[in-house]
Specification:
Radius of gyration: 22 Å
CATH superfamily of the largest domain: Mur-like, catalytic domain
Helix content: 25-40%
Mean pLDDT: 94
Largest sheet: 6 strands, parallel
Shape: globular
Number of strands: 20
CATH architecture of the largest domain: 3-Layer(aba) Sandwich
Number of domains: 3
Strand content: 15-25%
Oligomer: single chain
Distance between the termini: 56 Å
CATH topology of the largest domain: UDP-N-acetylmuramoyl-L-alanine:D-glutamate ligase
């Protein structure tokens, strides 16, 4: 088969390895930019702005997740690692999507199931590339798949248990508009059957609208009939599971993520002790509101994964202490109006950086929040030093940018790692 690998990053490399394992396949790699990683020796590679215009006459064009299908011009079949995995996976799949909390919720589910003695595979952006582990999965295993809108764009099969977390405006730099983004999210339940399950955030109108069109069994969360918090404890219906203090990660917004995770596993394990153990075992993900260090009474938190305003708002609400927050970066088409209003509700000073600094500043001014400054063209070390000078004893410094990282940094991990390095050098 004549196969085009469209996009050669981490997933593209995984795609190549998977299809190259069949010697009958003839593979060509395409990308608009020179890949950061070395391409396989002896394999034809086409690089350039017009690379995706040259995909005609291939039997299969394997699209990497972040590449919009609109950019692909081919008379062959457009396919993805996600579609291949769903078509071939022998095990039950729990799929998690939403604008924020996907990685945390998927990890909590995996942690709870592992605590219950299940063999679990965590795949997607936070786990192993799905195709790398496909051949090792058995029918009795359980797969937890973190699914972004990019992976759901053209999916052709839905998970057995689908979870839709809080949805808000995101990725409008890649999606044509909000409707396109919501439609992609909706695909997580599009192919579900009546005996499948859709767990959805019943406080979010976008998630409610998606659920209305589903034929699956609907479970809204939090809900007194299923997973919820009562008197600082997690419950499932009337059964007490454990104190919320068993949850190792900070932020009350994670109570909702935990409830969604409990709903996902309850029908599989029905095991309160395993759920409590799973909540305690999960210590958080890199760059997701992680404590870096405490210095002179100030705690420094890395929340570089917060690439949308809602995530930064959640980070602000996670702390009652005085705060310094570092905001800004490259554009994802976000609206910062709500973030500007939220800043007014906190004892906080803001440092604004990157391409979106002025747009955030406009939202702050419109909301009547003025305790901010714009710093451009300086290193992360100088940004952190400035944040330190603003911080009050007993307070926190938050890197929770509400924006993408490109331009100043390679990606959100690079941004977070530079923040960690700078904090540790203070």
């Amino acid at each position: 088969m004549k196969i085009a690998i469209a996009g050669f990053g981490i997933e593209g490399k995984s795609n190549y390895n998977y299809w190259a394992s069949d010697p009958k396949n003839i593979i060509t790699i395409f990308d608009q930019k020179q890949p950061d990683m070395e391409t396989p020796a002896g394999i034809k590679t086409i690089i350039g702005d017009d690379a995706f215009d040259k995909l005609m006459d291939y039997d299969l064009v394997v699209r990497t997740a972040g590449l919009t299908p609109r950019k692909i011009k081919t008379n062959g079949r457009i396919w993805t690692a996600t579609n291949e995995f769903f078509a071939k996976c022998p095990a039950q799949i729990i799929g998690v999507t939403g604008s924020k909390g996907k990685g945390t919720t998927a990890s909590l589910i995996a942690s709870m199931l592992e605590a219950a003695g299940k063999k679990v595979w965590l795949v997607g952006n936070i786990g192993s590339p799905a195709l790398d582990v496909l051949g090792q999965i058995t029918p009795t295993d359980i797969v937890v798949y973190e699914l972004s809108s990019f992976q759901l764009w053209d999916i052709e099969k839905s998970p057995h248990i689908a979870i839709i977390l809080f949805i808000e405006q995101e990725h409008l730099d890649n999606h044509s508009d909000m409707n396109d983004y919501i439609q992609a999210k909706t695909n997580i339940t599009k192919y579900q059957k009546p005996d499948d399950v859709l767990i959805y955030n019943q406080s979010n109108q976008y998630a409610i609208d998606v659920a209305k069109g589903s034929i699956a069994q609907l479970v809204g969360y939090p809900n007194d009939k299923t997973a919820h918090v009562f008197e600082e404890c997690f419950y499932y219906n009337e059964q007490k599971i454990c104190s919320v203090n068993s949850l190792s990660i900070v932020g009350k917004f994670n109570y909702d993520n935990a409830c969604a995770a409990i709903d996902a596993v309850w029908g599989i394990t029905n095991n309160a002790a395993a759920i409590e153990k799973g909540l305690a075992m999960f210590k958080g993900l890199p760059h997701r509101l992680q404590l870096v260090r405490e210095l002179d009474g100030v705690k420094y938190y890395d929340d570089s994964i917060a690439t949308i305003p809602g995530a930064a708002i959640a980070a602000l609400r996670a702390f009652d202490e005085s705060k310094v927050i570092i905001l800004g970066g490259s554009s994802k088409g976000s609206n910062f109006t709500e973030l500007g209003s939220e800043l007014k509700n906190h004892d906080v000073s803001a440092i604004l950086v990157g391409d979106e600094a002025e747009n955030i500043a406009k939202a702050c001014r419109a909301a009547g929040f003025s305790n901010f400054e714009i710093l451009n063209g300086i290193s992360m070390a100088k940004i952190v030093s400035r944040a330190q000078s603003h911080a009050k004893p007993g307070g926190v410094v938050l890197l929770s940018p509400a924006c993408a990282s490109f331009g100043l940094f390679k990606n959100y991990s690079d941004r977070g790692n530079q923040f960690i390095d700078a904090v540790n050098k203070l």
